[in-house]
Amino acid sequence: MRKDIARSRIKKILFSNVSFKLELYCKNLSLKITNCSTIIFILLLLSINSFSQTKEKKDVSNYLDKTIGEEILNINNGKIHIDSYNLKNSHNYYLNKNFVNGSVFYDNQLYENIQIKYDTYKDELVKSFENNNTFGITLINEKVDYFFIEDKRFVNIDTKYKYPKTITGFFEEKYLGKNLSLYIKHIKTAKETIIETSLYTEFKEYSDYQLLYNSKFIAVNTQKEILVTFPQLKKEIKEYYKKNKILEETNPYQFKADLIKFIDSNL
After folding, report:
1. pLDDT tens digits, residue range 158-198?
2. 243, 240, 214: which is closest to 227 by C-alpha?
3. Which of 29, 130, 160, 184 is spaced 20 to 30 Å from 256 by Cα?
4. Closest Cα to residue 139, out of 109, 182, 184?
5. What pLDDT sits at residue 54?
6. How far is CA 187 from CA 71, 234, 235, in A?
């Protein structure tokens, strides 16, 4: 049913838009396109903003995704990324819902000064399509080794560490020491809520702290977990918590990084 709806709308858009845009984009498009049908589908994507309803955008997006599939693999292409959420007070991205300047090491090549954003709900990195703030291209996780957003370095744990582990995906690389390394997983969960007569998606953020110690990842989200990991420093760790309560409350990321650095220096 969705495919029929999408095809119907695509045909209408095609006849009214593609003639002019095809000629223009064939001259200027810098993306690597494998066939003419892919060009047409991307041009149709640019016309989706004529649809006013989120569901309509999602129908067309799903149809295009399946049609294009995994045929497009370089940094300039990928699966179409369109947010289908009706937002009010929150969003599903790291720090900023808009694209920001960053860099990505993708498919063994470094790309600098490109517009990206990190979807922490889906754990996906999104690149702006032609510097368009509405539409993006979802990069293939397996090809992303690391990326930077606002001087924060995120690494793909799956490609960086090949040995068996219980964690997966992108982690902020917060501290690299002699014996210890601290990684932070930024996570968002979604919940649908009704406000007046409208349905919204609300996102809640939380973090998962993972310590790399002796080639093993260990959760260090609580003081208890840290004390279990380093029983020989029990007294010192408790004292550190007492002296740095304010930092723990105001900047928990930096507090945890400083704590791990302190422990590392005492091992």
Report:
1. 999 987 788 999 999 999 999 999 999 999 999 998 888 88
2. 240
3. 160
4. 109
5. 53
6. 29, 29, 32
Question: Residue range 54-71: average pLDDT?
Answer: 50
- Tell me the whole-structure pTM to 2 decimals: 0.72
**Strand 144-149 versus strand 132-138 pairing type:** unpaired
Q: Is-contact 263 183, C-beta < 8 A?
A: no
What single string gives the DSSP state of each residue in 46-114?
HTGGG--SHHHHHHHHHHHHHHHTT---STT--EEE------SS--SBSS-SS-EEEEEEETTEEEEEE
Give the side-chain half-sphere CA count within 13 A for 188.
20
Structure tokens at 92: 């599903």
CA atoms within 13 A on the CB side of 31: 23
Annotate 10-42 with b (16+ C-beta within 10 A) or e (fewer).
beebbeeebeebbeebeeeeebebeeeebbbbb
